[in-house]
Amino acid sequence: METTNQALLDWVNSVAELTQxxxxxxxxxxxxxxxxxxxxxLDNGSFEKLKEETHxxxxxxxxxxxxxxxVEHLTFICTEKQEDAGPNNHWMSPQExxxxxxxxxxxxxxxRTMYVIPYCMGPIDSPISRCGVEITDxxxxxxxxxxxxxxxxxxxxxxxxxxxxxxxxHSTGELDPDRRFIMHFPEExxxxxxxxxxxxxxxLGKKCHALRIASYQAQxxxxxxxxxxxxxxxxxxxxxxxxxxxxxxxxxxxxxxMLIPPEGYVQxxxxxxxxxxxxxxxxxxxxxxxxxxxxxxxxxxxxPGTSEATNPNALAMLYKDAIFTNVATTEDNQxxxxxxxxxxxxxxxxxxxxxxxxxxxxxxxxxFTVSAKRCPSYSEEAESASGVPISxxxxxxxxxxxxxLVCEARDWQHGVLMGATVASETTAAAAxxxxxxxxxxxxxxxxxxxxxxxxxxxxxxxxxxxxxLPKIFTVNxxxxxxxxxxxxxxxxxxxxxxxWILKRCDSQVGTTDTAIGGLPDPADINQQDLDIxxxxxxxxxxxxxxxxxQELTEVREYLDGxxxxxPEALYNELDKVKAGF
Length: 581
Ligand code: SAT
Ligand code: MN
Fold this sequence. Notes:
This protein is of the alpha/beta class. It folds into two domains: 6-47 and 75-222, Phosphoenolpyruvate Carboxykinase, domain 1, CATH 3.40.449.10; 226-297 and 380-579, Alpha-Beta Complex (Phosphoenolpyruvate Carboxykinase, domain 3), CATH 3.90.228.20. Strands 1, 4, 5, 6, 7, 8, 9, 10 and 11 form a nine-stranded mixed beta sheet that branches. Strands 12, 13, 14, 15, 16, 17, 23, 24 and 27 form a nine-stranded mixed beta sheet that branches. Residues 227, 249, 278 line the site of manganese (II) ion.
């Protein structure tokens, strides 16, 4: 018997009966297990070894060309009542979904090994953490889960102590897009995913558990499961603040989480530490502040654009013990992607010979997987059982126009409206058109496991007298001028905006109050060594009244789309903004 938890044992047995694997392997997380699976993946061609001298213990995985991103149109929330899933989700009844999935899973692991991966999302000893078990027939998934979660024996022991776990069943199936579904059963704390081996579709601890299922649990239990990075900022006086920031996929969360401040800041003694780059679970502590953990233990980051200039910390962690998915390779078999450097790769992400000028060599959503411990800026606080107290929450998006560089909400309620209505241009992280503006509330559009209107009510419910809630801000690093050039330098220079935000948290600077919120006086943004013209900064911090009136009309229509469940408070806030012009 592999576990003392009867429910787990029964479930594993019933899955084996359904899927008919040749072997069942319970994953312990041991070093030998890691080595054996790497060897197996090398032997069956799923892994290729990268150059050992420059990239020890690094592997390349090239996926099926049709399986390179999350598939939102095939992702379902299966609640008993359709309205509980909300218009923000595709819905299927649990009965229909189970029938469909049981059909797909029947006998699908014949000739394969079924891996049972107990995992813990968050530090093993944290009360905020939650456990799950993923069953999969993909050794690639096991190796990614090993880097992304705390998996194996310690997680199983916690499950045996607590009795509770999320059940995730995954098979790569035939990788046929017509036989691909990602089903969530929040009421059963269960996930079933078939037909894809790609990150967010297959590493079930990540978006499926830590966001879709966890957001549902969080609403019932009074906490928040969010698509946010968490970073620590230490000022020259040694005071530490923690910031949580929500951005849609592939909008620079990893870069912001690992930011290296401009030279002058470093000399003055500013420091940024990384807690997480994608997911944040937070709850009010006894002191009324929101305390947050990163439920993950690794990074599944977008490779293209990652370079010595944009994210030196990320680059530093990618020379050892990493998995690269769908990147290109150089002549001497090093991983390569657009934006890394000016070498020309010889093989593209599909394994074909590549010559210069043939377009992108790495897939735009190619990824690296690496343990967080490899990151030079990774903070010890990320392992803290109590989490870290959050001083500021940031909502961001990718908007060429209109949205200012930074703007502060008047209060929590206004901040919830800001978060609920942020929009962003779409990226390659999801299948579908790139560059289309869509509203992406709290960057949770593809990840909220229930009705958005109920989610906003849940956010509003934290506004209680005893809570000392973070201040809320919006940011936009992506404004462009008439010639299509970025107006703000971004990356490390975003430190200047963070500094302003923290000064606001400590009441050291004021704001210019406008209808849309509090904007900085440009003089309060540190411009030392910054190459930006005064008019450009002024424009980044200006309110385009006409543009905002149009935006507000669209925002109202958007809220209306969620029907009667939309909290009145959001409409009141919207009226306040409108009345402010
Ligand atoms: O969904 S993934 O976790 O694979 C990546 C992302 O979209 O953030
Ligand atoms: Mn993400």
